[in-house]
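Supplementary Note 3. Input sequence used for the single-chain structure prediction.
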Amino acid sequence: MPRVIGVRFRRAGKIYHFDPGGLKIERGTNVIVETARGLEMGQVVIGEKELPEDELVMPLKKVLRLAGEADLRQVEENKKKEAEALPKCQAQIERHGLNMKLVGAEYTFDRSKIIFYFTSDERVDFRELVKDLAAIFRTRIELRQIGVRDEAKLKGGIGPCGRSFCCDSFLEEFAPVSIRMAKGQNLSLNPTKISGVCGRLMCCLRFEMSAYEEAREEMPQPGEEVVTPDGEGQVMRSDPVRKVVQVKLRESDCTREFPAEEVDRL
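The predicted structure, written as discrete structure tokens, is reproduced below.
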């Protein structure tokens, strides 16, 4: 089996596998590799290990070298140039009167190309814009239209929960989220309460759903007949977060709340 390392090019980005090429590379090391976009610097997040070929995209590209101080300085300089490129690109967008929102700019490591990310509600004919940008920056230009969830991941920020966006912190890829997941967690279906800053349903609805499903298997659900320390009754409500169930007692006809571990199914 091939020996590979896992490299990530941005925080919470997808992990790509490369051939270490005989180099001793530890987790956390920055490396220079060749990608479809050109030379890039990434960080090793998975140390050297063996993987079967059917789990890899073959042929594997080799790591060119370990990143040095000059490479790190170039990355920092690229970031400064990206910040300078944004207002120049925005000025050209306004000059051409295009209906597009500029989100970010990204140079490849070797500055052979600059990528401008934008959102728009419609298809945009940016051919003339590309020509003008190429004349200004004197390098290859790519304009990439992205969705609002990608915009949130690219820019980052703080979510309604007070923590950094999940997509910017640890989610490598977006997965479909449905309103059914909000219903399954007994959440308010008010769109403002279950939507993220991007305006779409919050990603956490999906990866937290499994915890609710497991709790439901273990806990009695509404309508079930149960035995409590105070006698038999029917479950009126189940709260998987607090691990409690609300039971209407048959003998006293009153409703009480019990810890889930004190309630048994009949």
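The two ends are 53 Å apart (CA to CA). The chain has a mean pLDDT of 91.
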